[in-house]
Amino acid sequence: xxxxxxxxxxxxxxxxxxxxxxxxxxxxxxxxxxxxxxxxxxxxxxxxxxxxxxxxxxxxxxxxxxxxxxxxxxxxxxxxxxxxxxxxxxxxxxxxxxxxxxxxxxxxxxxxxxxxxxxxxxxxxxxxxxxxxxxxxxxxxxxxxxxxxxxxxxxxxxxxxxxxxxxxxxxxxxxxxxxxxxxxxxxxxxxxxxxxxxxxxxxxxxxxxxxxxxxx
Amino acid sequence: xxxxxxxxxxxxxxxxxxxxxxxxxxxxxxxxxxxxxxxxxxxxxxxxxxxxxxxxxxxxxxxxxxxxxxxxxxxxxxxxxxxxxxxxxxxxxxxxxxxxxxxxxxxxxxxxxxxxxxxxxxxxxxxxxxxxxxxxxxxxxxxxxxxxxxxxxxxxxxxxxxxxxxxxxxxxxxxxxxxxxxxxxxxxxxxxxxxxxxxxxxxxxxxxxxxxxxxx
DNA sequence: CCCGCCTTGTCATGCCGTTGTTAGGTCCCC
DNA sequence: GGGGACCTAACAACGGCATGACAAGGCGGG
Lengths: 216, 216
What we know:
Chain A contains 8 helices and 9 strands. Chain A is of the alpha/beta class. The longest helix of chain A is centred in the middle third of the chain and has 14 residues, at 100-113.
């Protein structure tokens, strides 16, 4: 992502020529939003970003686990940028103007440095759930889940193949001192079931709780 | 175990709040020694450990059978640590600084992933009963049992090849101060028998009680 | 700054499985 | 033949659970 559209296009095209898939975002907010859902290895980040300053965005990225590596582009006229950029957690920096081959080199290096052993992705019964990226997929079809729905599904997958009672779910997903007489768990599980579609994945064992159906 | 005493205390206390028993060791040698005798499920291991480097200790742990799972903490400033930490056999990693809830989540996940923690599956006379999944199978055919039925079958399988009197079952499965004149045990055993199908698995010894029939 | 959508919790309602009881029925032993 | 222990069927009550509708709160867009 770049502040200068033309430059950004050139960079993106050049990287694609090197065989890397590239997405573009021209402002910080768009970038932050799309980073939630994509699983890129490296973010090329211009420090002078409209909409949301590069520093802020960088911190947002870095503070999350499973984050991509960050290569920050800094203006040559401000040498101090390098320092603060790095202290903010960027993994590498490059001063503008730069030679394009060097950018490619560094992106490659960062991609290589990144551990491709992703922290546990939960899989069961045709579902893949990534707790870090907050994405869930069933049979290749992406699911759009609300926070609670996602948390419930995550808890059930972690417990798989065991059960979780409504009470336990209430403690883990909701607050630990939640009203024990609520039936929001039932409702949320119901909504989750509808979004998950057929065939049913969440089974109810009366008097025991819920569990993920199927092999495992 | 941590290199930073203060951080270690915080982490330990936080994990205890989550209901996990925690021991602390502030250097590698102490840790290695105590790990011989304790039966912990998960080791949270700082890579930069005084006395004995985290890598070495990790290898020592991993090479042993019945080992605990290892969650290695790596310094954020050295991304390469992640890779080698995992190649050394750590089961998960977490870069410092980290969000505490995430540490809790990962420790939980690891504890659950540990293979030999799985409680035993009860088997006898062509029946497999998994107390965790709360599933029961006869000759490959899954059974759908109610809570009471499941509990009765579980109790009988545990007692196998011995007997359980109706009175004992009443105490164990039902409340201990249940009406001693009730007939519900007989009825429940009857319903269970029907669901189990042929040939009969539960035998009655008049005046003594019930037992699982057959080999074991 | 206001408006509308999405999320989330609550309530009311209806359904279905579970469960204990009651009432016969059968078998065996005395 | 009588009695006791056990089995089974039918029944009714209870509780848990699913579902739809509704309202409050949050968040983003206009």
